[in-house]
Design goal:
Keywords: DNA damage, DNA repair. The chain is 38% helix and 13% strand. It is of the alpha+beta class. It has a domain at 8-114: TATA-Binding Protein (2-Layer Sandwich). The chain has a 5-stranded antiparallel sheet. The longest helix is centred in the middle third of the chain and has 15 residues, at 162-176.
Length: 334
Amino acid sequence: MAGRFDPLNRTAVRGGRTDVPPGRAGTAGAGAVERRWTPDGPVDLGLTLGPLRRGPADPTFRTTPDGSVWRATRTPDGPATLRVSRTGTGTEIDAEAWGAGAAWLLDQLPALLGAGDDPAVFVPRHRLVHASHRRRPGLRLTRTGLVLESLIPTVLEQKVTADEAYRAWRRLVRQYGEPAPGPHGLSLHVMPDPRTWAMIPSWDWHRAGVDAKRSDTIVRAVRVANRLEEAAAMDLPEAVRRLEAVPGIGPWTSAETLQRSNGHPDAVTTGDLHLPGIIGYALAGDRDADDAAMLELLAPYAGQRHRAARLVLLAGRTPPRRTPRMYRSDIGRL
């Protein structure tokens, strides 16, 4: 579709979206580039980008009191920092980026904010899901186009508590990553590159609380980093096969990764300790549901099962706790 040129703001208007050219010089800081994008519908920045955050002190992710979301990442073009915020009207999204990968990040901005996601095709089949869906019209499924940045912290989360995994991620990124480009007040860091991950000595994995099984999986993954990154452009079944060809990556890890890198609405998580019970309790009053029962309950949402599961989780209807919390190990203290 041909664009319509607006002589007042010197932007190209295409298909209902207004884009400031990604290469235009920014005004927020030295070396920044900017883009303004108008989505076709509501976008809640917190709900959409929240799954990329690994704990409240994630060194690669920050939210600030003005509602901005900051993200430091390693793109195919190099490290970059992205700031995303709403304009004064609230209908447009402003983005600023710094670093070698700034242009790449701004080019990917619509996908990151769910432009490829079509929530209109979702049809709620349960009262709770319908209510949760209606209360969150701005929920979009993010698509980063980056596999390793989601895969590595997901592997760290295998079979441990969230706190343990977040602690390991913080320690390793700060120790082996690099300061993010751009403004330094938030102390953001970019995660290590594949070669650096592969060179981390066993004692530093241990100090971070990461056992040999998880560290070995990460090392195997980064050694085929380019092959894994190709999965970001694949259909879900092919992408799953590509990731699970690496020993140590199973259905739980591949689903949690592809939900973020590919933004696939049907990448439902199986093998989780808590999710089947939450879904079963919320939709059928069955707190003892297993994966098979969960998938049966989600069957009416085929093609959209991940979105349905997220809406159930956001509804907050969880079964009362009746067992002790998962034991927290700390191999870094052994």
